[in-house]
Amino acid sequence: MNAQHLQPTGSAYFIAKETERPENHTLSVLVDNEPGVLARVIGLFSGRGYNIESLTVSETEHEKHLSRITIVTRGTPHVLEQIKHQLERIVPVHRVVDLTVRSHEFGQERPLERELALVKVAGTGEARVEALRLADAFRASVIDANTEHFIFEITGKGSKLDQFIAIMKPLGLVEICRTGVAAMNRGPQGM
Amino acid sequence: MSNGQSERREMTGAEMVVQALKDNGVKHVFGYPGGAVLPIYDEIFQQDEVEHILVRHEQGAGHAAEGYARSTGKAGVMLVTSGPGATNAVTPLQDALMDSIPLVCLTGQVPTSLIGSDAFQECDTVGITRPCTKHNWLVKDVNELAATIHEAFHVATTGRPGPVVVDIPKDVQFARGFYVSPQIAPRTSYQPKLQGDLEKIKAAVELMAGAKKPIIYSGGGVINSGPEASHLLRELVDLTGFPITSTLMGLGAYPASGKNWMGMLGMHGTYEANMAMHDCDVMICIGARFDDRITGRLTAFSPNSKKIHIDIDPSSINKNVHTEVPIIGDVGRVLEDMVRLWRATAKADKKALYPWWEQIAKWRARDSLAYKMNNDVIMPQYAIQRLYELTKGMDTYITTEVGQHQMWAAQHYHFEKPNRWMTSGGLGTMGYGLPAALGVQIAHPDALVIDIAGDASVQMTMQEMSAAVQHDAPIKIFILNNQYMGMVRQWQQLLHGNRLSHSYTEAMPDFVKLAEAYGGHGIRCEKPDELDDAIKEMIAVKKPVLFDCRVATLANCFPMIPSGKAHNEMLLPDEATDEAVANAIDAKGRELV
């Protein structure tokens, strides 16, 4: 068979050979905080077959009605460039910065990325003590507790949170809530 | 978003809509009334400045507005009610999005207090139309209505043009508020870049000056940029002596009678245009987007060329094809700089292009648009040729439906000016041409407006014949009737072992009687030697005409780049035997469209 590598990429119409490798990038998107703006951004990703690994959004400048959306997405460099340009086409979008690309320009491996998680662990006896000891080691703080449970608040890189959650699993993990990634570049410059 | 202090007049939301239309220079609105837009219709009733064209289906209103926009360069406007009115508008909205047509769609909505309650004729209009518009708005406050409509016109007509929707709840139409005039302080997040980067344009001119095998590949962006862009394009071609081809959407920007014209390129483009695209060393893409109908197999697309790409939309750059010199800006502005720089710095070495033109002449000699003439049956290509010969001296506008007839029209009807050719390129909407012709005729009441149609497509929006009769729009519907969905059948022959699944239209209506039933005029022609007289009759009749042109039923559209193939692997008409057709597309190509 000489089937080559003619795999359709996203659409059956295009048969470009995918030679580039997908990478995770973190994008910061500054938007007017108006009804439907998040739907426009998310709809763009689903409509064009892009990935969302993480999404965080909140108003950041109340007087100017500006919100900042942080998206972690996965794609080849070519697709990532398209995502940026497609986002910029959305009328209420002010700026799109690929923080990962920007950090490379600064000679850094990646931008600052932090995530917050609330982790509920229930149990008694030795498991309970162990959970508290580990939480301390991870610098997670207890924000709610009674004799049968803890709720920990933990902040850090995604990988740290992953690890903490994995460790809590055998110790009575009940539920988890994560905020998604908030990110910005190091140094004095703004986005 | 707006200033507000200029002229503040109190009025109802419905009055504001009509006032905003007037203030944005709107003369015609295509629409269909319904419960949620009645206050606006009541205002339209009480004035004469804005004329309302009543269609028979909201899709027709949309395509008519698109034809109006495409033929005038102004925004087309449609007005529809909530629910089904809005959902019926979706097809023309997506059509306008893909072909970059400025289209302003005003929709009624149920009262704000009922939104979300599954009220009668409610739908989530902004949700449904979000992916098929450039932008859309739901106006919940009457004091924001005027500024929103002004902004809608601004967004639709500037940058890369496109469709917009303004959704207006019925209570907002009744409410009283303050009207503001359209001096918009543009929102800071929407600032299309018009002026090209001069360094990039210099680099492009340098590359062009050194080219031995150049080609200009222009598209609909030239036409959208306005008549001046077409002038500049012609000037650039004259100065450089470069050959030029165009996409389907760009026909007319460079005249078909121009000596550097190579015909359309792409899937059904000419052999010379596609071969030149494949073999060129410098490609100048002007306002086109490397669509898959143009490029064929991407991995084999013009492998040895450096590419210059002028586009107003940064997302078009490097989307499908990598470009060495991207220039982001309005085609007209960029061409202005490019022509100026070329005059100042580059000397056209037209002699250096001789071998290239000789090669092109060899390709041209293959005569890729040739077909076998027949004395008993009208060949579809012949019908288009005669239509062209008999109408070319007139003030003519051509629209089409989608399918074989559309490609034959693009191949055999020759356009000298921009804005004369209205066709659904990106979305490929069957049923586009008849209502589009209505829109064109409303904009140009004295012109000859012809919809080159197929028998299948035209039945999708046939009801607009009634609208054409009502509004004295003498559109000519020239139907190439082969009793098949010709392009579907052609692909079934190419891909599916000639099993013609549901591509034959049984129970075809009698188009002559149908025309008469609508109050129009019907003509049928079955013989080549009667064709000229029949076409003359069609031109002479001063009312809408359905022309049933019975053509060879099994003719196929060539030349063709079969899917999955490259520009230099075209299927030419004289090679398109039954066997060649059956084997033209291999298993991989079959998965494509």
From TrEMBL, chain A:
Family assignment from sequence similarity: Belongs to the acetolactate synthase small subunit family.
Matching entries from Pfam families are given as:
ACT_AHAS_ss, ALS_ss_C
GO function term, MF aspect, one: acetolactate synthase regulator activity
Record's subunit section? Dimer of large and small chains.
Tell whether Amino-acid biosynthesis is among the UniProt keywords: yes
Q: Which PROSITE patterns match?
A: ACT
Q: Which reaction does it catalyse?
A: 2 pyruvate + H(+) = (2S)-2-acetolactate + CO2
- Kindly state a single biological-process term from the GO annotations of this entry: L-valine biosynthetic process
- GO cellular component assignments: cytosol
Keyword Transferase carried by entry: yes
Q: What class of enzyme is it?
A: transferase
Question: Residues in domain ACT?
Answer: 26-101
Query: Which organism is this protein's natural source?
Result: Mesorhizobium sangaii
List keywords of the entry alphabetically.
Amino-acid biosynthesis, Branched-chain amino acid biosynthesis, Transferase
Matches recorded under CDD domains: ACT_AHAS
Q: In which pathway does it act?
A: Amino-acid biosynthesis; L-isoleucine biosynthesis; L-isoleucine from 2-oxobutanoate: step 1/4; Amino-acid biosynthesis; L-valine biosynthesis; L-valine from pyruvate: step 1/4
* Enzyme Commission code: 2.2.1.6
Q: Report what the protein is called.
A: Acetolactate synthase small subunit
The task this protein performs is described as: Catalyzes the conversion of 2 pyruvate molecules into acetolactate in the first common step of the biosynthetic pathway of the branched-amino acids such as leucine, isoleucine, and valine.
UniProtKB/TrEMBL annotation, chain B:
Recorded metabolic or biological pathway in which this protein acts: Amino-acid biosynthesis; L-valine biosynthesis; L-valine from pyruvate: step 1/4; Amino-acid biosynthesis; L-isoleucine biosynthesis; L-isoleucine from 2-oxobutanoate: step 1/4
Name the EC number(s): 2.2.1.6
**Which molecular function GO terms apply here?**
acetolactate synthase activity; flavin adenine dinucleotide binding; magnesium ion binding; thiamine pyrophosphate binding
Keywords on record: Amino-acid biosynthesis, Branched-chain amino acid biosynthesis, FAD, Flavoprotein, Magnesium, Metal-binding, Thiamine pyrophosphate, Transferase
Q: Name one GO cellular component term.
A: acetolactate synthase complex
UniProt cofactor note:
Binds 1 thiamine pyrophosphate per subunit. Binds 1 Mg(2+) ion per subunit.
Thiamine pyrophosphate enzyme N-terminal TPP-binding domain ranges (all copies): 11-127
Q: Which residues cross the membrane?
A: none
CDD domains, per database record: TPP_AHAS, TPP_PYR_POX_like
Where would I find the Thiamine pyrophosphate enzyme TPP-binding domain in this sequence? 402-549
Residue stretches making up the Thiamine pyrophosphate enzyme central domain? 201-337
- In Gene Ontology terms, what is a biological process of this protein? L-valine biosynthetic process
Similarity comment text for this entry: Belongs to the TPP enzyme family.
**PANTHER family this protein is in?**
ACETOLACTATE SYNTHASE CATALYTIC SUBUNIT, MITOCHONDRIAL (PTHR18968:SF13), THIAMINE PYROPHOSPHATE ENZYMES (PTHR18968)
This chain's protein is named Acetolactate synthase
Which organism does this record belong to?
Mesorhizobium sangaii
